[in-house]
Amino acid sequence: TTFERTLVFVKPEGVHRGLVSNIMGRWERRGFTLVACKLVKPSYELVRQHYNYMSERPFYDGLCEHMSESGPVLAMVWQGRDVIKTSRLMIGATNPLTAAPGTVRGDLAVHVGRNVVHASDGVIGAATEIQLWFRDEEIAQMDSAKNPWLYD
Ligand code: DAT
Ligand code: MG
Question: For the whole model, what pTM was predicted?
């Protein structure tokens, strides 16, 4: 639907490498609406919850430490029609080795452990993750004046 929302964040390596505007710009240019955005250093607990589905994997502890200790993350909520699925296509495959050129990972990353960006992977994930990272009052309630030029 038009008001579907998803969580996207630029990981610490993306912030340190100065890739924030490049990454944000892709969602803006595609036609999505930014409804929340903050530069945060997520707590270890938040990150462990976020990646909970990975808790049995050998890289889980390292992943959570990296995400919470390496520096700030740029967390965003993007809104628009089919934004959840489209964002997954825009970030590319988890392993940058197989991510298509034109995607964030295919253009800006080389290694799975430093793959620069996150996007929720479905409707349930998006709702859960937005709640985990943002308070309701941090999310703008807005329709976008550009919508008639994006959707028929
Ligand atoms: P995605 O970030 O594309 O949704 P995922 O949910 O499967 O991928 O994994 C979450 C993160 O965990 C991923 O962005 C990087 C890390 N990760 C996944 N597989 C990994 C692996 N084989 N080695 C190291 N880190 C990995
Ligand atoms: Mg995932």
Answer: 0.97
